[in-house]
Amino acid sequence: MKRRDFIQIAGVAAAVSSLPLGVGASILNQKRKKIYHVGIIGYGDRGSGLHRVMNRMPDKFSVKAIAEVLPFRAQPAAEQYPDLKVHQDYRKLLDSAEIDTVVVSTPLNAHFEHAKAVLEAGKNLYLEKTMLFTLEEIQAFQELVRNYPNQTIQVGHQYRYSPLYFKVKDYIQKGWLGKITQVSARWDRNASWRRPVPSPEYERQVNWRMYKEYSGGLVAELLSHQMDFINWAFDTVPDRIYGTGGIDYYKDGRETFDNVQVTLRYDQAGMVGNFGATCGNQYEGYAFKIKGTEGTISLLTNDGVFYPEPEAKAKLQEVDGVSGATPITWTENRNGIKLVDEPTKDGTIYALEDYYRCLEEKATPLCNVENAGNTAKLVALANQSLYQGELKTWKG
Asked: Which stretches make up the GFO/IDH/MocA-like oxidoreductase domain (predicted)?
C-alpha cells in the first residue's frame, strides 16, 4: 500500500473510532447559573414525556405548571405532582411571572397560536416538531420571531443533538461514504396508531393525528425526523417532492393516510430520498440507510453500523490488522464497523441539555426556526402531494 493511501485510510479509521461529544457537553463543567422554571402547554404523550425527562435534570429545569384542556389528563398530573399548577386555559400559564420557558406540545394545528402567544408573553420557547402546520404559518412565524431577538426558540428535532447522528453527519461531510446517491428511510408499525378515548366526544382531541384538520399524519409525526436529518447533514433541501399513499388498511374513519411513500429529488446533491411508513407491517420498524459508492450507513434511532464496500473494507481491515494504530470496532461477523460502542440515550435528553446551554449563553439552537422551518415546509409540501396526487417543487 502506498504511504498516501495508508494515511488516508488511517484517517478514516481514526474517524470511525472517535465518538463526537454531545453538543450539550460544553455546559457540563460550567457553574450552574439558573434553574429554569418551565410551563408545558399540552400534556398528552409528548408533553408528559418531556416533563419526566426534565425531572431527571433538576439542576437545569423545574416544571411549575401545565395547561391541558382534557380533564382525564390534567387530573392525574395534579394528583401525581401536588405542587404543580394545572390550568385549562394556557393563557393563565403564560400570565405567570414565575415561568421562564414554555414547552409547546399540542396538536400540530395549534402550534402557531401557542408559539406566538409564548413569544408575546416574553417567554423562551421549546416547540415540539413538526414546527408548524401550513406554509402560510411557517412564513408568518419566521417573520414574527424577528421581533423577539432576545428569546430562545428551539424546535424538537432530536437528531441534531445525538452523538450518533453527529457522527453520521461527520462521515458524510468527510466523504467516508463516497458519492452518496440514495437514502432509504422507513418507520413502520403493525398497529392502528389509535389511542383509547374515555368517551366518544373526545375522539378528535385524543386521536388528532388521524384527522387532516389537526395533523400532518405519518409524514409529520414520524418521517419528519429522517427528512430533517438529511436536510441538516447535507445542508440541502429537495427540489422536487412526490408522495403517494392511502387509507389502505384501517377503515375506521381516519382521514390521514395509514400507508405513505414520499420520494424526494435533491438536484444539488445528486441524490434520491425514499421515505415511507405503513401501519400495516412492522417487519422493518425503524430503518434508515444512507448509501454511497464507498459504503452504507444503517441506522436505528440510537445505534448504527457503517458497512464499507468491498474495496474500502479490505483497506480498513488492512489498517486495523497490520498497523494496530486504530481501534476499529467491527461487528461480530466483521461485515461492518460500529458507530457507537453503546446505544445512545433518549434523544430528548441531548436536545434539552443543549436547550439549557442556549438559554444560558443566549445562543441560537442547532434546531431553530429557520432550519426547522425548512423541514416543516417539506412536510407540508409532501402532504399536499400525497392528498392532491401532484408533483411539488421547492420554491425558496
From this structure: 167-297
